[in-house]
Automatic annotation (TrEMBL):
It comes from Lithocarpus litseifolius. The keyword Hydrolase does not apply. Pfam families: Raffinose_syn. InterPro entries: Aldolase_TIM, GH, Glycosyl_hydrolases_36. The keyword rRNA-binding does not apply. PANTHER family: GALACTINOL--SUCROSE GALACTOSYLTRANSFERASE (PTHR31268:SF10), PTHR31268. Keywords: Carbohydrate metabolism. It comes from the Eukaryota. Belongs to the glycosyl hydrolases 36 family. SUPFAM superfamilies: (Trans)glycosidases. This is galactinol--sucrose galactosyltransferase. Its EC number is 2.4.1.82.
Length: 1186
């Protein structure tokens, strides 16, 4: 016997995978298979037509646990668990059963690693069919019924054959995902979340005005709130101006008469424009109008996104039919009619009010015009999107207009069309929309609220809120990004809510009153740039929590899981004893108030994180490192191992679950992330490892700042975070020489800032130390700047022996003795003077103490690293101390040990150290000559204050201060290795390097602008006169190892972009072209291998066309071949003109999911595609669709 997954009715029983699910199935029930995947639709027929039918599906057999998501109010779902059909509530919109599979010889085997004990799951989803929607409900006789209704007595049917979708599987999360994708294809009325454009506000910290001001919101209050965030150092980047900004009228509340509760919801919209509070005639006179106000807060506070609130019907009570502005939309007063399913659960004060006073409803044919007028006006005021509330009201207004489903779909399509037309970025958040009418009509809407409001004044609602958002995300998370709502950062339950938001995969925003923030909590959620560490999916209960009650069973904790890019995360929350579910009986010994009950316990395992193998690498054997956020503990566990956690009510713990990677030499390693952020692992973006015979180097790309943690089975030799390598810097040497001062340095930094290019790395060179022949016991003035200069021996001539501060290092006097090899070349004036005056240097036994004291002091002053100069002097004082190599070895080891101890990274630059004594001794050091190798150690300038050419600087430096640094040291091309590019009168210098996806060649005419130092004792010569232009050939073949950055489809052809001329050409790898340059001129060529894609498309990313190293802006490239389209995805760092070679004109291009204008001349032969990247200088995702 073969047991299949396809549902079927046999002998009056509904069978799934060999199990009886329902008995007594009526004869009018029909089962229709969907495809070949084991799913089906359930339906039924009636003998008479009606606008509302209730059909029985049969009796739910015992032995099943169930999870129901049902509408407790018209607006919101909550979960309910149980074991019998009688417990299934009215308005159930998802029903999940847990079952045990019957054994059989040919059972289908599950590939799911979490699959145990033949457990499988059966999913019932009541859906939409034509003009009808479906819900499930139980009866006291344990029957499972489905209700189909149109919401219009004139819209009737006698059958509904595709009312309930049923499917089964071993993994409940895959089951839900696959089922929603099947329904997407079958119904065609909505889209799965993977096929929607994500609004960019999701990745930024936000503030909503609702709980801060309610409807009393005003420009003055918003300014006060933003100012308080600014002063606390944690500014929101998106703002929701909630209810209170619109021009409304309440006809049922008369001045001088007592207030009647509920009449506030009957208020109606008068105009699409803002009310007087947001105009100059407002009492606080803080803005001219809404446009002026939004522009001002964006400019002053750096707000990226401003959303405005409105109801789906315009306002709570709709629009005012007598308003001159509203008459064009033909509004009429209608009185809501609720479904018996809604009134059979909890009634709502809003609906009670509107049933009495009516709603001003815009006719369906005019609703797009209304939305378009409203949204185009808001967009003209610099508004970026909208939060659209009170959405389920529409289901009650379907009488006479085709019913609830038709009206909801009409409104939803008009709303989404207007959003796409006016805001472009799909900037829409839906709210109060938990009915299947809206859920299964959502084609573009990508964000929706996951539960009833966070209610700061209701202590018994806090645990219900956390449980509701997690359980509701099971269904909602497959169609939208669930919005877990705002919260207060200064609240008794703030930590509880903050931890949940951190792992919810949702937007993170608060509704704090001005000055009422807890910035300690906010800094665990928000990075300094205002972004958040958002997990990849919607946070959902772990598998072992799906059928328990985490709020009222007095024993179960709620575990919520999610994934980051390289790790999982689990939040454990004790929601017991602090509230009770509505419509559920409360045991006498359960208190409704916040409880201080004793702890309860549960077990946490890596096994709780679904799909963890997706973020592990091929070497993963199942072991994980478990980091507990609150306790700070780190544990190693196998995949199915567990640890016990005990928590009191309204407390929580977060665990980062990071799969341990196995590298060479039995090294076990895994990154944890930023240890002081709730979602630590969200900070880790990528990891790669390079190995050779003697070492293993692990490189981690991360976001944010703070304490980074990782698990390692072996103590590393060193850890490097060379911050200066990727940032623009300023060195004080040629600007001031030894005459620098704090005031002069501040002036210089101010000049850079005024020009829009402030350096991110400052090198304070020689001149800051106390070197006079006086008794001064301090190393440095009290400065707190980035890098500090010192000589390897302390200063040029070593230490002052009479200094009491230095006598403990026992400096020894010596006269330098140079090697005959040095003496045979140029005599150095520095050594010449030292040979006359001698050097006081520290012996090997004391040198670490000296460096450690110096660096320890500098680190205590906030210094991040050191530039250590005059290093080769040590080779001249080795006599009597073991020789030059031995002494240099001791100095170098002591220096590197001190840098690693005090600066925690490899923030060390060595200078004047070009001897092989050093070259073969360094382990963490970045070597430079006096003429800095800027292609490797970062871009530094030595400009005097006010003497800058910002046009040049902007070709080197991105607006955030970072640089486009290539992968390795720039070196001469192979055909230049044996030429003299300075004095032979004919050769140009070509320097090659690699970026991540391209090569680069710089060509420089260095001839006759100087001469190599020719003979001992001579001076550097600059000959008079000028030189003619010189020529050379440039080829892709000049770039070594270019194949390493080309894709597998590369046939050798390259796109070659010339920076100065702006020309783009293509050529084979061994092809070449001629370059002609005048004296001290240069040209830079980006060499990008052309990828041959599907549909005969050839493509090569160039990068940022206005940056010298254009290709350094390209971070990643991915190609996807679809049935009807081909997509190239490019990740780019920075902003400006992005260029690429394409032999075909794209259909369209998007930047960060927003469609973007592009330039492509189909008649030109160069194939240059250009997209302007505007706004923030960050990583941008470009999609090019053919």
């Amino acid at each position: 016997m073969t047991i299949t997954a396809t549902p079927s009715v046999k002998d009056g029983c509904l069978m799934v995978r060999g199990r009886v699910v329902l008995t007594g199935v009526p004869e009018n029930v029909a089962v229709s298979q969907v495809g070949s995947g084991g799913s089906a639709f359930l339906g039924a027929t009636s003998t008479s037509p009606s606008s509302r039918h209730v059909f029985s599906l049969g009796v739910l057999e015992g032995g099943y646990k169930f999870l129901s998501l049902f509408r407790v109010k018209i607006w919101w779902m909550i979960p309910r668990v149980g074991k019998s059909g009688s417990e299934i509530p009215l308005e159930t919109q998802m029903l999940l059963l847990e079952a045990r599979e019957q054994s059989a010889l040919h059972d289908e085997i599950s590939p799911d690693p979490n699959y145990t004990e033949n457990t499988f799951y059966i999913l019932f989803l009541p859906v939409l069919e034509g003009q009808f929607r479906t819900s499930l409900q139980g009866t006291p006789a344990n029957e499972l019924q489905f209700c189909v209704e149109s919401g219009d007595v004139n819209v009737q049917t006698s059958q509904s054959l595709e009312a309930v979708f049923i499917n089964s599987g071993h993994n409940p999360f895959e089951l839900l995902k696959n089922s929603i994708k099947i329904l997407e294809k079958q119904k065609g009325t909505f889209s799965h979340i993977e096929n929607k454009k994500m609004p960019p506000h999701l990745d930024w910290f936000g503030w909503c005005t609702w709980d801060a001001f309610y409807t009393e919101v005003s420009p003055q209050g918003i300014n006060e709130g933003l100012q308080s965030f600014l002063e606390g150092g944690c500014l929101p980047k998106f703002l929701i101006i909630d209810d209170g900004w619109q021009e409304t009228v309440n006809e049922f509340s008369k001045e001088g008469e007592p207030f009647t509760e509920g009449t506030q919801f009957a208020s109606r919209l008068v105009d699409i424009k803002e009310n007087n509070k947001f105009k100059s005639l407002g009492s606080d006179n803080t803005c001219i109008d809404l446009h002026d106000f939004i522009d001002s807060i964006k400019d002053k506070y750096g707000i990226k996104f401003v959303y405005m609130w409105h109801a789906l019907a315009g306002y709570w009570g709709g629009v005012l039919p007598s308003s001159e502005t509203m008459k064009k939309y033909n509004p009429k007063i209608a009185y809501p009619i609720q479904s018996p399913g809604n009134t059979g659960n909890l009634r709502d004060i809003v609906m009670d009010s509107l049933e009495q006073y009516g709603v001003g409803v815009i006719e369906p044919q005019k609703i797009f015009e209304f939305y378009n007028d409203l949204h185009s006006y808001l967009a003209s005021c610099s508004v970026d999107g909208v939060k659209v509330d009170v959405q389920n009201l529409i289901e009650t207004l379907g009488t006479g207009v085709g019913g609830r489903v038709s009206l909801t779909r009409c409104y939803q399509e008009a709303l989404e069309k207007s959003i796409a037309r006016n805001f472009k970025d799909n900037n829409l958040t839906c709210c109060m929309s938990h009915n299947s009418d809206s859920i299964y009509s959502s084609k573009k809407s990508a964000v929706a609220r996951a539960s009833e409001d966070f209610t700061p004044r209701e202590p018994t609602f806090q645990t219900l809120h956390i449980a509701s958002v997690a359980f509701n995300s099971l269904l909602l998370g497959e169609i939208v990004v669930p919005d877990w709502d705002m919260f207060h950062s200064k609240h008794d339950t703030a930590e509880f809510h903050a931890a949940a938001r951190a792992i919810g995969g949702c937007a993170v925003y608060v509704s704090d009153k001005p000055g009422k923030q807890d910035f300690k909590i906010l800094r665990k959620l928000v990075l300094p740039d205002g972004s958040i560490l958002r997990a990849r999916y919607a946070g959902r209960p772990s598998r072992d929590c799906l059928f328990i009650d985490p709020v009222m069973d007095r024993k179960s904790m709620l575990k919520i899981w999610n994934l980051n890019k390289l790790s999982g995360v689990i939040g454990v929350f004790n929601c017991q004893g602090a509230g009770s579910w509505p419509l559920k009986e409360v045991a006498q010994d359960i208190c409704n108030a916040t409880s201080t009950s004793s702890s309860i316990s549960c077990h946490v395992s890596p096994h709780d994180v679904e799909f963890l193998e997706e973020v592990a690498d091929e070497s993963w054997n199942g072991d994980c490192a478990i980091y507990a956020f609150n306790s700070g503990s780190l544990t190693k566990l196998p995949r199915k191992g567990s640890l016990e956690v005990s928590l009191k009510t309204l407390t929580c713990e977060l665990y980062t679950i990071s799969p341990i990677r196995v590298f060479g030499n039995d090294l076990l390693f895994t990154p944890l992330g930023l240890l002081d952020m709730y979602n630590s692992g969200g900070a880790v973006e990528a990891l790669n490892c390079t190995k050779d015979l003697s070492s293993c180097t692990i490189k981690i790309k991360g976001r944010g700042c703070g304490r980074f943690g990782a698990y390692s089975s072996t103590n590393p030799k060193c850890c490097m975070l060379p911050a200066h390598l990727d940032w623009f810097g300023w060195n004080t040497w040629d600007a001031f020489y030894t005459n620098d001062s704090a005031e002069a340095i501040e002036d210089g930094l101010r000049n850079f800032s005024e020009g829009g290019c402030p350096p991110k790395c400052l090198f304070i060179d020689d001149g800051w130390q106390n070197t006079a022949y006086e008794d001064d016991e301090q190393f440095t003035e009290d400065t707190k700047l980035a890098y500090i200069w010192h000589a390897l021996t302390g200063y040029w001539g070593g230490l002052l022996p009479d200094s009491e501060a230095l006598e403990r290092f026992s400096p020894k006097f010596a006269y330098p003795v140079q090697s005959p090899g040095n003496l045979s070349h140029i005599i150095c004036v520095t050594i010449d003077q030292m040979q006359k005056g001698g050097v006081e240097f520290v012996l090997s036994s004391k040198i670490f103490d000296f460096y450690n004291d110096l660096h320890g002091y500098l680190a205590s002053c906030g210094i991040d690293g050191v530039k250590v100069d005059v290093q080769n002097i040590v080779e001249t004082v080795g006599a009597g101390y073991g020789g030059r190599v031995t002494l240099i070895s001791h100095y170098q080891e002591a220096l590197e040990k001190s840098v690693m101890r005090n600066f925690k990274s490899s923030n060390l630059i060595c200078s004047m150290s070009m001897s092989n004594d050093y070259l073969y001794r360094v382990t963490i050091t970045r070597l430079t000559s006096m003429a800095q190798q800027e292609h490797w150690v970062g871009v530094q300038l030595i400009d005097k204050p006010g003497s800058h050419n910002f046009n040049i600087i902007r070709k080197l430096v991105l607006p955030d201060g970072s640089i486009l640094r290539d992968r390795c040291a720039g070196r001469p091309t192979r055909d230049c290795l044996f030429n003299d590019p300075v004095t032979d009168g004919k050769s140009l210098l070509k320097i090659w390097n690699l970026n991540k996806l391209s090569g680069i060649i710089g060509v420089f005419n260095c001839q006759r602008a100087g001469k190599w130092p020719p003979v001992p004792g001579s001076r550097y010569l600059r000959p008079p006169g000028s030189a003619p232009s010189l020529e050379c050939h440039v080829s892709p073949e000049d770039v070594e190892f270019l194949k390493e950055v080309a894709g597998e489809s590369w046939n050798g052809t390259c796109a070659v972009y010339a920076f100065h001329s702006g020309s783009l050409s293509t050529m084979p790898k061994k092809g070449s072209f001629e370059v002609c340059l005048g004296l001290l001129k240069s040209e830079i060529f980006t060499i990008s291998p052309i990828r041959v894609l599907g549909h005969d498309i050839q493509f090569a990313p160039i990068g940022l066309l206005d940056m010298y190293n254009s290709g350094g802006a390209i971070e990643a490239l991915e190609c996807n071949d679809g049935e009807s389209a081909y997509m190239v995805k490019v990740q780019v760092q920075g902003c400006g003109r992005f260029g690429a070679y394409s032999n075909t004109k794209p259909r369209f291009c998007t930047v960060d999911s927003k469609e973007k204008h592009f330039m492509y001349n189909a008649l030109a032969s160069d194939g240059l595609l250009i997209i302007n990247l505007q706004g923030e200088c960050s990583f941008r995702d470009i999609e090019i669709v053919y």
